[in-house]
Amino acid sequence: xxxxxxxxxxxxxxxxxxxxxxxxxxxxxxxxxxxxxxxxxxxxxxxxxxxxxxxxxxxxxxxxxxxxxxxxxxxxxxxxxxxxxxxxxxxxxxxxxxxxxxxxxxxxxxxxxxxxxxxxxxxxxxxxxxxxxxxxxxxxxxxxxxxxxxxxxxxxxxxxxxxxxxxxxxxxxxxxxxxxxxxxxxxxxxxxxxxxxxxxxxxxxxxxxxxxxxxxxxxxxxxxxxxxxxxxxxxxxxxxxxxxxxxxxxxxxxxxxxxxxxxxxxxxxxxxxxxxxxxxxxxxxxxxxxxxxxxxxxxxxxxxxxxxxxxxxxxxxxxxxxxxxxxxxxxxxxxxxxxxxxxxxxxxxxxxxxxxxxxxxxxxxxxxxxxxxxxxxxxxxxxxxxxxxxxxxxxxxxxxxxxxxxxxxxxxxxx
Length: 415
Known about the structure:
Layout (H helix, E strand, L loop, with lengths): L58 E6 L4 H11 L5 E7 L4 E6 L54 E4 L3 E3 L5 E3 L5 E14 L5 E15 L2 E11 L2 E6 L8 E3 L2 E2 L5 E2 L2 E5 L5 E5 L8 E7 L2 E7 L3 H4 L26 H7 L28 H11 L4 H8 L5 H14 L9
Antiparallel strand pairs: 1-3, 2-3, 4-5, 4-17, 5-6, 7-8, 8-9, 9-10, 10-11, 11-12, 13-14, 14-15, 15-16, 16-17
């Protein structure tokens, strides 16, 4: 297949006729031995390019002599941390690392690409996803596991016994009890008021966690866009429970103009952002008392200003509120992003603790967890079998932990 048809400043790409192995991994997981610093001639590695083939387009840049996915990941992230990186592929035959960027944001010339079209390729091949953005070159892939899942990177997520996924695709747990800021986005979208004046609307997502013994879980989530607030609560009997602008089970059709839908099982609420941000959405999923929130298909244009417990969108770092101090202690990170009065009130009712009282933290969570494991009737092996159908490593690990903690094999339904 014809992958690229232009000369790069640093490297010439040959036609590619192989399966592109596509892997999204956290930069922090890169092994220093397999992810060396890029040579000086690769620190700025080429121009962006628009492609007309296959009714798709993307901006890309490339470097040669990269031999591992970890090294490719590190190279793409470190060379252009603020250029709208969407992911990467490693061509194992030619040792080319190819970095994908948002429209017009790649290194070098960049430029604006023409409109794209959504279409599937022939059966057995990778799909053009999200309005044509993303790699579309893997003709010979026979499993979507080898295709680049555009909607999964970057993303921000929280679920279960609070497992968090940062914008950098790093995973951590925070087992405290309090209201926390999952993410806050200033100037999320422009809108017109009743006087036809242009105003900007902010977006905020707050989570309320509840502690049980050595672990906690997200029992409520509240999302505010502009002045509209949707609050969702998990229920042990699987019943529907939400508030729209503090009205319990009020008419729910949209949030600040963005359509909202509830699936037929009444366990997933979707805020569709397509009208302004094609292919993007926010999902709130419930399972019994558990609530999870997932941001899908985020871009620089929509979530570029995002900060919160799931990190800074532009860098992926888990910053403190000063946006300069990086926090690696996740209990400290949770305390830092406890909801303050200045963050506003999103939940219809208050619950302890509220600032200035700090988040409650479990005592000796690791020791209590081990004792719980020793006493469990459902073993880790059984949990792993129950969760084996989940394709995402992050979800699978969280699922196993949650089943053992709750002694409920049905927890796989939370994922």
